[in-house]
User: What shape does this take?
Amino acid sequence: MGNKLTKRSEDYSKWYNDLVLNADLAENSGVRGFMVIKPYGYAIWEKMQAELDRLFKETGHQNAYFPLLIPKSYFSKEASHVAGFAKECAVVTHYRLKNAEDGSGIIVDPDAKLEEELIVRPTSETIIWDTYRKWVQSYRDLPLLINQWANVVRWEMRTRLFLRTTEFLWQEGHTAHATKAEAITEAELMMNVYAEFAENFMAMPVVKGVKSVNERFAGALETYCIEALMQDGKALQAGTSHFLGQNFAKAFDVKFTSKEGKQEFVWATSWGVSTRLIGALIMTHSDDNGLVLPPNLAPIQVVIVPIHKTEEQLDQIIEKASDIIKHLKSKGISVKLDQRTTHSPGWKFAEYELKGVPVRLAIGPRDLENGTLEIARRDTLEKKVITFDEAPLYIENLLKQIQADLFEKALSYRDSHITEVENFESFKDVLENKGGFVSAHWDGTSETEEKIKELTKATIRCIPLNSDNQTGVCVFTGKPSQRKVLFAKAY
Amino acid sequence: MGNKLTKRSEDYSKWYNDLVLNADLAENSGVRGFMVIKPYGYAIWEKMQAELDRLFKETGHQNAYFPLLIPKSYFSKEASHVAGFAKECAVVTHYRLKNAEDGSGIIVDPDAKLEEELIVRPTSETIIWDTYRKWVQSYRDLPLLINQWANVVRWEMRTRLFLRTTEFLWQEGHTAHATKAEAITEAELMMNVYAEFAENFMAMPVVKGVKSVNERFAGALETYCIEALMQDGKALQAGTSHFLGQNFAKAFDVKFTSKEGKQEFVWATSWGVSTRLIGALIMTHSDDNGLVLPPNLAPIQVVIVPIHKTEEQLDQIIEKASDIIKHLKSKGISVKLDQRTTHSPGWKFAEYELKGVPVRLAIGPRDLENGTLEIARRDTLEKKVITFDEAPLYIENLLKQIQADLFEKALSYRDSHITEVENFESFKDVLENKGGFVSAHWDGTSETEEKIKELTKATIRCIPLNSDNQTGVCVFTGKPSQRKVLFAKAY
Assistant: This one.
């Protein structure tokens, strides 16, 4: 099997698409803008889900499920929300098909028109807050800490596998609190949970920050985010957590009786990450040979490829491999033995390289004689010969090492691509030639942000939380600035 | 808290609805026919999902994800399928809303009409087989063993929480095989997997069988099923597995090159269970006091309620309880300590009874002195005093005992409600007065089946696989019959 991938240096965007298709992660479906997530891609999503779900539950959240279809009128109740969301979405207008009278096939039955159109959820704030009204009476009912795993639909004109699809899978947390302070703490907590997941499982360093007003979620008072940097120097918003104030409580009349016996509106947050993270994972680590997966999210962590000429050799190799598999499984390591005789070892090497399996073991007849095996790591492509006896511990440590190395490599790339600039010429120069984040003073106005976007296509990715808040002058207008913010071109 | 449930003997249907609402399992949403699955109900679904997913993976299946919306024309490709499914369904006709020019709110943008309407999936055979065409070329690509966890929508006029809702959650397996024999083996395997799940986890005995032609899945050549019996004598179809022949392969042109180099159509199966199972679980075990859950699916298996007057006593009880919790958790038992001081022990007893927690422990000041605790089992409401030392092992065994007892009780009810009848008078009498399954000879024709349904509302639930195939004469027409089949009124 030859390597079918476009090189990153030739066309990064084409490389990405080639990789998603060739590594069997996803493909476009017959329905425009909708993707099929193939088993290998879905297995990565299942690993992500399992870890995120654990982190959500450890922080006190429970899962629930709310309706897919939402009455149109619900969206009108929160003014800024409808402006941001309800426009580009799938609208259900009828509930029945029938046979055409002229025998030409099935048609929409005009008699089955809905009184009120239903919207396929683009996000669930409205239907959930309509429900919370019934669930919240007293301060004793608070906080409500709920998460939903679901599919959502946002009509997109230009789609890219995982990064921007009309339908995507995600989780959306929706919490209700008695006080403003509690809600803000929750929104910050979930940003931190996302950052922990991104860094410890995806091996993807992120900047934590808040969005400028322009980039805020429709209906939020504050949007916390984690921003990552892809290999091509473009930023990617990897997760957001919104402090929604009392906007939805007021729109859906969700009040509670406080300890002091007063009627008060509830405070809200919402937060989400999606299958977009798979796109981020790919563009953080992968190379011209294919996918590179961090061991903590790899569906297969170790693959064993037998190299043999005779049936008898194969049997002996399988027997030896079984011992290693038993050892590794007892340590919770997922391992696959590929004993297919329909494919050559060389084909298998290329296949697992393309699919990003972190560690590959090869065992041949010479190895059986010597009590050794060849071990190759996917990230560096380094190979080494080790003995059977040392293999289990060596592999266990190697997986940890690869996880750590991938993070360090991505961190070092990211850190070397945060460039401080003091004037607009350098600003443009860095964006044009070097890429990455540009750290610059900004006068805090939406007008300036928009003008910069027009001129450079860069947006404010976030106002970092760890900023030292040094004042200065805006890189574009020269007006006073409270702190530097991060600009970048973004996915 | 008084018991708010209607008694089963008064109104079984109202009892069911009361229970679902009061035990916080689900509720109707603001969208007609759509339910909200509340955290406690969803936690049961998560337990079901985890066990089913494990069973699917152990039998070689992988998960994937296919589009929510399916072009209308796809449904027309398989004639019997469209007749059975595409009629009562949600139809997406537009992809944008806009502000009304008269300022009256948001309206559907007439300029954003889709060229071809999209159907919210009622089931995914069509979109999946459209995809399989690209995945299958050679016999080496087979079998394809794929499952999807998803939401589906079937427009229902009369809905009941969990049992029949317009949207429901389910899994749908879709497999492709090189031979007819392999596909039939797969369909039978999955029926057996469902039966294993129903009996070992839900503690719900099932009859395995095949459907009559009338009751078959739209597009199937054979529908295997598991049928359960509810406490009110009505049957419930708990899971189905379909042998689809080459119908979908032909409709979507999915061919493969066989080992012999010939082009052949692929053989198919599909199989599914849904959130309906939660309704079946409720109606198999629960009583007038509330939910009764089998330990293998209970989100909380053991609850500990402290009984105290002073703060000091509470602290001592919590300390003692912590030891027990540690022991139980080490054995994989989920346990909750309810140390809230806002609610009385009596309130908590009623609450956990209502929610069906299998085992309740109560610890009071006297227990601390005596080194004992009170243990109550939910299914029989029996109480007993045991020592702290014996508690961990006792509880572990008790959970197994409850699981086994629930199954035995349901089995004994079910077995005593399969009534053999030899003439139509007894047939009607049993259906009217005793309920349950009626085992009777049937002449094998759809006409007879339909007439019996008209007269009695009973349908053929299944042709049991373990039948002894004794011939006889049809209970209705007197014509020759090959074997007895099971009739019942059904959910």
Notes: Chain B has three domains: 12-57+123-285, 295-401, 418-488. The domain at 418-488 of chain B is CATH 3.30.110.30 (Translation Initiation Factor IF3).
